Amino acid sequence: MISCSKIPAFDCMGKSDFPADQFITSDKAKNIADILCKYINNEKVPCIQLTIIDSLGNKWTLTTGTSDIKRRSPADDNDLLRLASITKTFTATVIFSLIDQGKLSLDDKLITFFPDFKEAKEVTIKNLLNHSSGIKELLTLPDILTSSTLFTTKIWDINSIIKTISAKKLVFQTGTDFQYSNTNYVLLGLIAEKIEQKKIDQLYHDYIFNPLSITKISLVPQEAIPAKLISGFDRKLLPTPGLYEVTSQNTAWASAAFTSGALVGNSEQTALFFHKLLSGKIISVNSLNNMEEFGEKKNPDNEYQKYFGHGLFKFEINGKTYFGHEGLFVGADNVACFRTSDKVTITILSNISTFNKFNLLKEIDDLL
């Protein structure tokens, strides 16, 4: 373990030829670079990737920092980071694609696919999508927390985890509240596999990656671990001293998260997905409208998890409405979102848990 206070400063002065276009002018690019550098050094973040896509589809990407905490290896736009819970929007997109084909309905019951969930007999696909199921969070199971922390190359049997969860009582009566739970999206991924008789990584390719020519997002460890996947570092989520490193070969956390948080990728292709999805280019208008139907949590302890959609959240940033998803997990703190007023997409990826990503988003929004 290494103390977070010992992460060296990053020298941001070595680069001055930032990419620029009509949307992100050279002056604006320099201002954004300065902001990223501030967060890299003041908050001791190893690496931040940022991609902005304007309403015409023009992409602008900047990566700042290093892939390591000793500041020896400069990070680049092609480095891959753990997307964490941003994965959920990809999973929801597969589900809505199945709904568009008539293979599934929002009103279909969970017990149709998982009869062991006798306590959750009223839970529907809709309840899973918008976190109103009341099903227990799998990552709170003590064995998962302890074993994933200590045995980093463990690969969990996700069906065994779900079997354990199926015997647990509901946290609240289905449909009466919203509570974020990774279990909901693990179940959705498994339901998609049951319907299509294919593994979920193949379904991501069939419904999202192949149509959009996405080649740098993948599901690990179901797919081969990419050579460009960099380490992540945790300083808050786990009760370990110093910084806990999540190397590229760490399979424990990803295999437990599965379709709730195991995708890896870069900011550019993640932003491309969100831009196409929320511009109406992937699923039907009706399905997108359903995805963007938001319910309000009664007593939110996270202002950015107040408005629950179906694979999306609604954020209010500087008085502007964004639809998107954050991704916070061991070794990652991210956000990908779409500004509804002018169809601008912003994606921020990092390899630290945690930092003030929404403050960074506010500063970027101010400049655009």
Verbal overview:
This protein has 368 residues and is an alpha+beta fold. The chain has one domain (4-367): 3-Layer(aba) Sandwich (Beta-lactamase). The chain is built from twelve helices and 14 strands. The strands form three sheets. The protein has an eight-stranded antiparallel β-sheet, sandwiched between helices. Strands 3-7-4 form a three-stranded antiparallel β-sheet, with helices on one face. It is globular.
Outline the secondary-structure elements.
Elements: H1 26-42, E1 47-53, E2 59-65, E3 81-82, H2 87-100, H3 110-113, H4 125-129, H5 142-150, H6 158-166, H7 182-196, H8 200-212, E4 218-219, E5 232-234, E6 244-246, H9 252-257, E7 263-265, H10 267-278, H11 285-291, E8 295-296, E9 307-308, E10 313-317, E11 320-329, E12 332-339, E13 344-350, E14 352-353, H12 357-367
Parallel strand pairs: 5-14
Antiparallel strand pairs: 1-2, 1-13, 3-7, 4-7, 5-6, 8-9, 9-10, 10-11, 11-12, 12-13
Helix pairs in contact: 1-12, 2-7, 2-8, 6-7
Instruction: Give Rg in angstroms.
Output: 20 Å
- Label the overall shape: globular
Strand line-up across the major sheet: 2-1-13-12-11-10-9-8
**Major pleated sheet:** 8 strands, antiparallel
User: What name goes with the CATH superfamily?
Assistant: DD-peptidase/beta-lactamase superfamily
Number of strands: 14
* Reported CATH architecture: 3-Layer(aba) Sandwich
> What structural class is derived from the secondary structure elements?
alpha+beta
Query: What number is the mean pLDDT?
Result: 95
Tally of helical segments:
12
The percentage helix is: 25-40%
N/C terminus separation: 39 Å
Counting structural domains, the number is: 1
* Residue share in β-strands: 15-25%
What do we call the CATH topology?
Answer: Beta-lactamase
**Tell me, what is the CATH class?**
Alpha Beta
